[in-house]
Amino acid sequence: MKFSLIVAVVLLALAQGSFAQDVSDLESLGRYFEEMKNKMVQDMTEIIRNQDLANQAQTFMEEKKTQLEPLVAQIQEQLKTVAASVEEQIKPLAANVQAQLQVDNFKQQMESIFKKLTEQTMAIDN
Predict the structure, then answer these.
(1) Closest-CA residue to 15 (of 25, 5, 4)
(2) Per-residue pLDDT for 18 more than 80?
(3) What are phi and psi of 18, to 5 degrees?
(4) Whole-angstrom Cα distance, residue 66 to residue 96?
């Protein structure tokens, strides 16, 4: 609409400025304005399409996010259940391994003490 007003003002100014212009000059000027109008319409259409595409992409992302939120919540609940189950299974194993390590540590300490006693006994005998 602004373009139409600008064109109208320019044409009025040209019409008032000089009536002695050639018809060919007016025709070329008219073609120039027509080309400008077509280019502006084309540019505006492209801008609107790009903006529409961006809006469509935003809408698509929001829809998919809305669709995925319940699925994510379900997966989180399932992971919590699986984690609790794995923890229940691992706790006894961990306790067993810890007990075994303590037994092994005790065994090593006893072997070390027995070895020292044996070495001391050998030293006394000699």
Answers:
(1) 25
(2) no
(3) -155, 120
(4) 46
DSSP H helices, 18-126, are: 23-125
Q: Which domain holds residue 36?
A: 2-13+21-125
**pTM > 0.70:** no
Number of domains making up the chain: 1
pLDDT above 70 for 32: yes
C-alpha–C-alpha distance, residues 92 and 84, integer Å: 13
Instruction: Return the structure tokens found at 87.
Output: 């923890």
Length of the chain: 126
Separation CA 67–CA 44 (nearest Å): 34
Query: Are the C-beta atoms of residues 7 and 37 closer than 8 Å to each other?
Result: yes
